[in-house]
Amino acid sequence: MNVPVSFRVSALFCVLFCPRMAKLQAVFSLRHMLVMSLALNVGLIMRMFPDSDETLANDAVEAGVNSKRETHVVQKSTTLSGVNSTSADRPGRRERVINLDHGDPTMYEGYWRQMGEKTTITIPGWQSLSYISDMTNVCWFLVPEFAEEVVRLHQVVGNAVTEDRHIVVGTGSSQLILAALYALSSPDAAEPISVVSAAPYYSSYPSMVDYQKSRLYKWAGDAESFNKDGPYIELVTSPNNPDGLLRRSVVNRSQGLLIHDLAYYWPQYTPITSPSDHDLSLFTVSKSTGHAGMRIGWALVKDRKVAEKMTRFIELNTIGVSKDSQLRAAKVLKAVSDGCQQGESSFFKHSYKLMAGRWKLLRATVEYGGLFSLPQFCPSFCTFFGQETEPQPAFLWLRCEGEIEDCEGFLRKHKIISRGGKHFGGSPKLTRISMLDTQETFLDFIERLSNIQQIK
Ligand SMILES: Cc1ncc(COP(=O)(O)O)c(C=O)c1O
């Protein structure tokens, strides 16, 4: 059944919100009704798309609805009854705890299911016996097929310079962060080198840096207030986790060593404005393709000595990185690059539309309620899509307005689990919510947010 896009969007809103409307009418003030009718106004939602972004944006609205089809929970088509039966009929949905604390990228599962055999690999029993992959490479455990696909993907997407760079593979970019800290610090220094990052910073940095109580490096907090003389390491996360903003180093002193964590510098999250060109950059399949369970990340490193030290760290730590995972990652990256070059079912186009659909639904739900506020982003020209796009981060950095001082605690009372601002060196008035969960969980979250605003 071919239901027009605008009708399907309004249908989805009705499915999500209308069953409660009759009951709520009695307690609603005129303002509440206005809020709800605005949230239901599809025309308004459509107008929220910038003109220049029309193709991707129109597709995105459709994706916000259609992607239900792609979770295996939802098997029916996008007819109204198909949408209706999934959201409304699940028992216990209103009471369920909605856990959006972690950035678990399960929203990508539908796409990879659709790709079927394209990314399936068979590894015979005789393969991957040796620890070694290529002794001529600085990173001797780096599987050549994986290295080739890393270079190719960066060229296709245009998000990083790979010429004159050494690739170091890691068990996730988490291992590479530690490898980089090890490589950039000096065992002969009089005291541990300070590690800083501008708040709000990725909540794992402080514990990653300090949990081993290393004598090489120590966490020194918010880069904005760092005023100690001497060498330091700054972690620059761009786009940033939790707030999605593009970042540059903020300390900006001569003895600074920079680690650029570019886990989210991919077109579904932010416009690709130019290829990143830093001394040490980190990427991961966890956020680029959604394969967090594969545990594969990679570093692009300018200085050979730094790449050698990082390799040494991983050698001491895990004697290399799973070859099976590298082969699987190579296959996935190849499928992504092939898809982009052939123009059909491009992973990034698909993911962009999914994320755009989610952000539009979120804005429509939150912005007229007054209880919460969302960050605003400026569109830029994305060289990958060849048009202006808006940032649509992997996390929602939600602010509770008015008297609510503990946003995480407030949401927890409504059975939404998020990660409070304090974990990121920020204010408890803010909390981080993953935008990467399944469509089912995301829609339950939207419905819960809407209900909270009606109760208030
Ligand atoms: C900014 C940032 N860096 C690194 C990581 C770790 O990623 P990986 O799964 O590759 O270890 C994450 C995971 O959420 C992240 O958000």
TrEMBL record:
<keyword id="KW-0808">Transferase</keyword>
<feature type="domain" description="Alliinase C-terminal">
    <location>
        <begin position="98"/>
        <end position="452"/>
    </location>
</feature>
<dbReference type="GO" id="GO:0016846">
    <property type="term" value="F:carbon-sulfur lyase activity"/>
</dbReference>
<protein>
    <recommendedName>
        <fullName>Alliinase C-terminal domain-containing protein</fullName>
    </recommendedName>
</protein>
<dbReference type="InterPro" id="IPR037029">
    <property type="entry name" value="Alliinase_N_sf"/>
</dbReference>
<dbReference type="InterPro" id="IPR015421">
    <property type="entry name" value="PyrdxlP-dep_Trfase_major"/>
</dbReference>
<keyword id="KW-0663">Pyridoxal phosphate</keyword>
<keyword id="KW-0032">Aminotransferase</keyword>
<dbReference type="InterPro" id="IPR050478">
    <property type="entry name" value="Ethylene_sulfur-biosynth"/>
</dbReference>
<dbReference type="InterPro" id="IPR015422">
    <property type="entry name" value="PyrdxlP-dep_Trfase_small"/>
</dbReference>
<dbReference type="InterPro" id="IPR015424">
    <property type="entry name" value="PyrdxlP-dep_Trfase"/>
</dbReference>
<dbReference type="Pfam" id="PF04864">
    <property type="entry name" value="Alliinase_C"/>
</dbReference>
<dbReference type="GO" id="GO:0008483">
    <property type="term" value="F:transaminase activity"/>
</dbReference>
<comment type="subunit">
    <text>Homodimer.</text>
</comment>
<dbReference type="GO" id="GO:0006520">
    <property type="term" value="P:amino acid metabolic process"/>
</dbReference>
<comment type="similarity">
    <text>Belongs to the alliinase family.</text>
</comment>
<dbReference type="InterPro" id="IPR006948">
    <property type="entry name" value="Alliinase_C"/>
</dbReference>
